[in-house]
């Protein structure tokens, strides 16, 4: 494959990733949220949450943020299948979807992205554990925000996310988040 073709394949992957800015997280529709966050919005905050958790847990924040950034990129091809829907479907693995997404990209991109997704899906390092906790903690934070907006059916997402957390730091942040409002951060900085 020529360099031009590899560049075109890589640019194509980046355009495809841009679809995540338009694709909604479908599980929230089950809870009645009329205009849920996009997959990209979820992935952005998951990366921030992951970096913060990594700092608290003594893991590598850059590696965790990278794992979080790529954790849902496959949803450009398979969509955001809610957990209840997964029991009725047999979907390709995230590793296989990723391999298809990047098959025409630059070889360094192919090997790099495949390694990130493979590690997130199958690894057991502290960074992988923190990245998975970041995904669940971000979901909990979003559910708290939706609950404040009047969507009462999000409580199962809060319970499920809370019950999935593995690290002490994530559990601590979740408990504190559940005891405050999403705008309470302003009081800290305004001295109230």
UniProtKB/TrEMBL annotation:
SUPFAM superfamilies cross-referenced by the UniProt entry: HD-domain/PDEase-like (SSF109604)
Organism of this sequence: Streptomyces kaniharaensis
GO terms of molecular function: 5'-deoxynucleotidase activity; metal ion binding
UniProtKB keywords: Hydrolase, Metal-binding
Transmembrane segments: none
Domain HD/PDEase: 35-149
Top-level taxon: Bacteria
Protein name, per record: 5'-deoxynucleotidase
């Amino acid at each position: 494959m020529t360099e031009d073709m590899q560049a075109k394949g890589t640019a194509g992957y980046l355009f495809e990733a841009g679809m995540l800015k338009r694709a909604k997280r479908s599980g929230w529709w089950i809870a009645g949220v009329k205009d849920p966050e996009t997959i990209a919005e979820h992935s952005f905050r998951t990366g921030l949450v992951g970096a913060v958790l990594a700092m608290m847990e003594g893991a590598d924040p850059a590696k965790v943020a990278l794992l979080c950034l790529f954790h849902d990129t496959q949803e450009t091809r398979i969509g955001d299948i809610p957990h209840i829907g997964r029991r009725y479907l047999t979907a390709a693995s995230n590793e296989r979807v990723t391999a298809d997404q990047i098959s025409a990209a630059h070889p360094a991109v192919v090997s790099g992205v495949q390694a990130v997704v493979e590690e997130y899906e199958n690894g057991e390092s502290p960074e992988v554990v923190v990245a998975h906790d970041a995904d669940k903690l971000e979901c909990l934070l979003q559910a708290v925000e939706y609950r404040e907006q009047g969507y009462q059916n999000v409580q199962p997402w809060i319970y499920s996310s809370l019950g999935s957390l593995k690290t002490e730091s994530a559990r601590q942040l979740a408990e504190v988040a559940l005891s405050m409002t999403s705008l309470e951060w302003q009081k800290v900085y305004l001295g109230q």
